[in-house]
Amino acid sequence: MISLALLESFFTQYGYAAVFLVLVACGFGVPIPEDITLVTGGIIAGLGYADVHVMFLVGMLGVLVGDGMMFMAGKTYGDKILRFKPVARVMTPKRYAQVQEKFDKYGNWVLFVARFLPGLRTPIFITAGISGKVSFTRFLLMDGFAALISVPVWVYLGDYGASNRDWLMNKVHQFQYGLFILIGIGAVVLGYFWWRKRQRIRFYHRKLRELRQQRQALRAAKKAERAQKQTQKEV
């Protein structure tokens, strides 16, 4: 795991380009914490080595390019990409099944939540591309909306706490825990609405079956009645 001090040294020396490249690498599933990368970008801005507002834009561009490349890789190559060794390390069969289950359960909202799930982010974006059910525009909107929440939080937090690292890291951990709690609450809410939707669908299907059965019984009764009348005429 790359430390904050190492990232700070690298970013101080190479500036915005370094931040952008590391964020794109995060999108590829490289084990570098995206939140720490963004916080470090904010730190060097707070120390005067960069402009914090430009760093925010670089952060947005980096995460969207990295995520978009994973999505397009899945969309372009389909299931074949799962045989590519670097992808296979990130997208294990078990993880692929978990992601597919989440898509079936929560739909496109998984793309929004994925931005806050480091371990599942890359597999989810690849799976979204493989599925062919999500357009690039919709993907970009969902991922971009989530990035507009996470990226400024980390960048501006790093800028504000650049001179007090203990306070900063404490706040980073607090924000991380807070995000996980919000995601958990959101998952429960989405799960409830998903369950309600399933219940309504089952209710409508049951009613349709009952209507079909009633119509079939009515047609059978009319047919039997006509047959009985025909028999009486023949007698």
UniProtKB/TrEMBL annotation:
The keyword Iron-sulfur does not apply. Residues 32-159 form the VTT domain. It is found in: Cell membrane. It is a multi-pass membrane protein. Residues 201-234 form a coiled coil. Keywords: Cell membrane, Coiled coil, Membrane, Transmembrane, Transmembrane helix. The keyword Transmembrane applies. InterPro entries: DedA-like (IPR032818), VTT_dom (IPR032816). GO terms for cellular component: plasma membrane. It holds the Pfam family VTT_dom. The chain crosses the membrane at residues 12-32, 52-73, 139-157, 177-195. Belongs to the DedA family. This is DedA family membrane protein. It comes from Neisseria wadsworthii 9715.
